[in-house]
Amino acid sequence: MGVPILLKQVLVTGATGMVGRSLVNALLKKGYCVRALVRKKVDEDILPARVEQVTGDITDAASVCSAMAGVCFVFHLAARLHVNNPSPDQKEQYQGVNVTGTLNVIEAASSARVDRIIFFSTISVYGAGKNNQAVDEGSETMPDTLYARTKLKAEQLIDQFCADRSGAPEVTILRLASVYGAGVKGNYRLMINAVQKGGFIFLGNGNNCRTLVHEEDVAAAAILAAEHPMARGKIYNVTDGTTHTVKAIVGAIARALERQPLELHVHETIIRAILNLLELSLFQGLPGVEKIGYMINKMNEHVAVRGEKIQQDLGFVPQWGLDRGMKQALKEGRSKP
Length: 337
Hints:
This protein is α/β, with parallel strands linked by helices. The chain has eleven helices and 13 strands.
């Protein structure tokens, strides 16, 4: 017989983020002993008292090693996350956390003879889609942001490490769709705020696609990837099983908030004219110009990704559709202090 789950020690990096907290709660519910590598200890409203908190930094190899003792699974979420139009001086931070930090994790896990690492990557490694065509795990990667490039570099580092080292831990890579939940941030938080205020401006007709996944579905997929023998060495996209237009997402947010926002549409020709204008040398160097152009491009791009592989291989069944997920996320988000 194998070791009972309640005796298995797992390590979670990035445990204090939205996805990390959902994963920690799911692991505790299943009976795992959970250890979290944190930069500073947090209160019980962030991580339950049953979680063993080990202070350290993902970029410091020694602190990663100290957290790894006796661990069977590592869930590596810690990352320098996506920000809109990062400045050039942030490149070193992305490299340090996303690439060097991942190397520290896999080297420490190898030395500690960890069974499996679940590495959380992103569908952003595929880049923006073309004509709403959905891509899968075999599609070409064309990352177009600093965040996506460093996450793909970390994936490649993992592949090379496992190829070069005998006895290296098994690794499963999860490429997450845009994750939403009670602590959602970024562009989706901007969308929610706009609907709450009574209006939303669509850049184009709103039919460009997005691929999403609820935080609790991510946690379920990650545990499956750790426990299932077929997940060894695989890459999986993790989605809610479908793609959604921006118009549908705004509609789900409005229904969750019980609002009927005013919808304004900016024609694509006007969008292109604005972008062309912003590219003129007359405007270069003005505060906010690059950020505006970047935001327009991101809001108007297609991101459509297929998630059938993890469903077929591991039996993963997403539980959170868009309407149910938004209602739960926004309800819990409003109840938080």
